[in-house]
């Protein structure tokens, strides 16, 4: 088979070949750092606020502070004004290793009243197996800036647990309707993405307590199939709703073929039957165009960007970017901007960050915040150039 063609060209960046998307390991590092000089890019200035040990995700609380997960299993509460981090205790026991560990963190839409947070992580099973899980707990902060997670309970698990330590996915988000969405990747096992007896390789939709909504497309099938909104996914590491309520999810392809998908109810996105990339051992995978019954991506990347983290910008600090998506690039060491046009999308711009970017979020004032990957990962605030 001929090599797959790049459907969307990067602007102003030399292509970078794919690398493994797992974090490096290393000793704990201080969560606060001394003042560092800001670095100016073509469209923004990046100011360092802290460094974390293998940070994976972050979310802003209503008071403007941050929760940051560290892959080894620590949840940090970060005071932006004071540039100080304090550990939150009472979290789940995580299975650290490979791509596994502490994952995402999001606050309940009504957090101001119920103080509920949702956490994803890898957990151990029997006979050297692992799988992703999502738990919720009540966050109780203390006067010192730390706090505890209380009444922690698991509300969802990948089924079944399997061997290996890759492709958990476990990005989580709340939709405009208050439903909880979970990206459940296929754990490098390929075929479960098409098997409705498993929730691997699926996008999952639940009520906020983990129960299954009756209007899910496969609810009548019962079991884990009832959780499923879409199937045929590989390794989904970014999920975001646009202003119109459309849901967009990006996923890492195999050797080539990273994807940005518009999510449609009950659709099958084709993996591992089709892909715009090939297997790492060189075996070809038919293109999406050969099987039109499968939903095709709106953007593909080859060479890959290794996408991680995703936000669709809605702030006023960068008015020229309102409505754009921002994706962190691991192997590409980039921040990738995507423009949307209804049901279509394209890469519009790429910023060379000089480091693997794990997470992207929008702050309360409209600034963009990013987390670098690795055991000394920087927390950077992006603001317009003066």
Question: How would you portray this structure in words?
Answer:
The protein is mainly β and 386 residues long. The protein has a single domain (39-383), classed as TolB, C-terminal domain (Neuraminidase, 6 Propeller), CATH 2.120.10. Helix content is 1%, strand content 41%. The strands form 5 sheets. The protein has an 8-stranded mixed beta sheet, with no helix packed on it. Strands 1-2-25-24-23 form a 5-stranded antiparallel beta sheet, with no helix packed on it. It has a 4-stranded antiparallel beta sheet with strand order 11-12-13-14, with no helix packed on it. Residues 1-31 have low confidence and may be disordered.
Structural descriptors:
mainly beta, Neuraminidase, eight-stranded mixed beta sheet, 1% helix, PQQ-dependent sugar dehydrogenase, Quinoprot_gluc/sorb_DH_b-prop, Glc/Sorbosone_DH
């Amino acid at each position: 088979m001929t090599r797959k063609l790049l459907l969307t060209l990067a602007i102003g960046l030399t292509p970078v070949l794919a690398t493994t998307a797992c974090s490096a390991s290393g000793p704990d590092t201080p969560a606060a750092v001394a003042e560092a000089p800001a670095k100016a890019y073509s469209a923004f200035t990046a100011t360092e606020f802290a460094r974390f040990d293998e940070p994976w995700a972050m979310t802003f609380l209503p008071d403007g502070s941050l929760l940051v997960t560290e892959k080894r299993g620590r949840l940090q509460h970060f005071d932006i004004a004071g540039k100080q981090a304090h550990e939150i205790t009472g979290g789940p026991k995580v299975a650290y290793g490979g791509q596994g560990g502490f994952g995402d963190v999001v606050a309940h839409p009504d957090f101001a009243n119920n103080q509920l947070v949702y956490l994803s992580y890898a957990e151990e099973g029997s006979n050297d197996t692992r799988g992703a899980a999502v738990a919720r707990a009540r966050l109780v902060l203390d006067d010192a800036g730390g706090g505890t997670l209380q009444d922690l309970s698991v509300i969802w698990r990948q089924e079944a647990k399997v061997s290996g330590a890759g492709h958990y996915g476990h990005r989580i988000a709340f939709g405009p309707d208050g439903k909880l969405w979970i990206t459940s990747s296929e754990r490098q096992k390929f075929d479960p993405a098409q098997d409705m007896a498993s929730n691997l390789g699926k996008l999952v939709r639940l009520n906020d307590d983990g129960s299954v909504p009756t209007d899910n497309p496969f609810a009548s099938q019962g079991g884990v199939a009832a959780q499923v909104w879409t199937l045929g996914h590989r390794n989904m590491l970014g999920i975001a709703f646009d202003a119109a309520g459309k849901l967009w999810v990006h996923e890492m392809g195999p050797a080539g073929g990273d994807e940005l998908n518009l999510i449609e109810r009950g659709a099958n996105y084709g993996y591992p039957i089709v892909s715009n990339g090939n297997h790492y051992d060189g075996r070809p995978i038919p293109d999406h165009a050969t099987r039109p019954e499968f939903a095709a991506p709106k953007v593909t990347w080859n060479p890959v960007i290794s996408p991680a983290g995703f936000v669709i910008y809605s702030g006023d600090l960068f008015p020229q970017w309102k409505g754009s998506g921002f994706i962190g690039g691991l192997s590409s060491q980039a921040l990738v901007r995507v423009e949307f046009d209804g049901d279509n999308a394209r890469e519009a711009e790429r910023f060379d960050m000089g480091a693997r970017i794990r997470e992207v979020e929008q702050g309360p004032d409209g600034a963009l915040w990013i987390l670098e990957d690795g055991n000394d990962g920087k927390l950077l605030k992006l603001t317009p150039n003066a």
